[in-house]
Write a structure and sequence with these properties.
The protein is of the alpha/beta class and 328 residues long. The protein is built from 15 helices and eight strands. Helix content is 55%, strand content 11%. The longest helix is centred in the last third of the chain and has 33 residues, at 295-327.
Length: 328
């Protein structure tokens, strides 16, 4: 009997929904879900989630005080909105939701630490165990150091905006729970840099990057999980079948669900464990040197932080406008 690709993928890889759209999560029933500032901002503009936005703003006003300036209320609501969506998502999925630390803190270890603890405290105050939350942190050297401390406190982390092997190794050495290498954004960079319109899936630079990281992790028995992210097409996903996890947008989940065929395993932990690789010793100086030498990783990390920052600023503007309407 013919089987769809999504069904087969789920037999070898944990499928995660990459969206803040609660309805889409209900439709596809993934184990886990991930969000980011861009996804939360998009969801906050959907009319069906107006009640979540309004309730979050009203609670932020009540906790800030009637005389508090609007900017303070909006700042508080911005953090809480990500948690509000996370709580709704956790009512649907059996696993974990990822909630992101403010991208503007990406190069500030102490403040990232404080924000991670604060987000977990919000979830725990609502009766949700920290075991069901992944705190998303940008994979800068400073972010990785913050994640290392959070992990020691039992706060699990998802290191995002990851584009290079040096970032992946630093995350594994820090003992983080999970990393999210960005497949599609790597492809975007190479297409622009080389002038090529497309790459076959098996030659896709993002696919090759995740395969390299997966192989390195399994070779040296790191416990950190690899979750491919930011896909541009279904071919990238099928080439990574067998990866620990893959976080996939609803449109691509639908495409996989509607496509029948045979899906072979491409990544295999047992095979990777026998790979002929040398272990890389990584300290801050080596990380900085490898990052500077990797033009793609350097540019995409900076661009990603800027993009998430812009999304947060847009969200703040939306919340400020809605607060004005509610209090007008």
């Amino acid at each position: 009997m013919p089987r769809n690709l999504l069904e087969q993928l789920r037999e070898m890889t944990v499928v995660v929904a990459d969206t803040g759209d609660i309805q889409a999560i209900e439709n596809f029933k993934p184990r886990d879900a991930t969000t980011n500032p861009s996804l939360i901002t998009a969801a906050a503009q959907m009319p069906r989630y107006r009640d979540i936005v309004d309730a979050t703003l009203k609670q932020a006003r009540a906790d800030s005080g009637a005389a508090a300036p609007a900017a303070k209320v909006v700042s508080l609501a911005c953090d809480r909105l990500a948690v509000s969506f996370g709580l709704k998502i956790l009512e649907i999925i059996p696993g974990r939701v990822s909630t992101e630390v403010d991208a503007r803190l990406s190069y500030d270890t102490p403040t990232t630490l404080a924000k991670g603890r604060e987000l977990i405290a919000q979830y725990e105050a609502r009766g949700v165990s920290r075991e069901r939350i992944l705190i998303k942190v940008a994979a800068t050297w400073e972010g990785i150091r913050a994640a290392e401390t959070l992990e020691k406190e039992g706060i699990h982390c998802n290191l995002t905006l990851l584009f290079g092997l040096h970032q992946a190794i630093a995350c594994a050495e820090a003992g983080v729970t999970l990393i999210s290498p960005f497949v599609g954004r790597i492809l975007d960079w190479y297409k622009k840099d080389t002038g090529r319109d497309a790459y076959p899936a098996h030659e896709d630079p993002g696919v090759l990057s995740v395969t390299q990281i997966f192989t390195y992790y399994k070779k040296f028995a790191y416990r950190t999980e690899v979750m491919g992210a930011s896909f541009r097409n279904a071919g990238e996903i099928t080439e990574l079948a067998g990866c620990d996890l893959l976080t996939i947008a609803p449109s691509l989940l639908a495409e996989l669900q509607n496509t029948e065929g045979v899906l072979p395993r491409k990544l295999d932990a047992a095979r990777a464990a026998n790979a002929a690789l040398d272990k890389i010793t990584l300290d801050e100086a080596t990380f900085a040197r490898m990052h500077a030498a990797d033009r793609m990783a350097s540019e995409k990390l900076a661009e990603g932080i800027a993009g998430f920052t812009k999304a947060l600023e847009t969200l703040e503007q939306l919340l400020a406008a809605r607060l004005k309407e509610l209090e007008g």
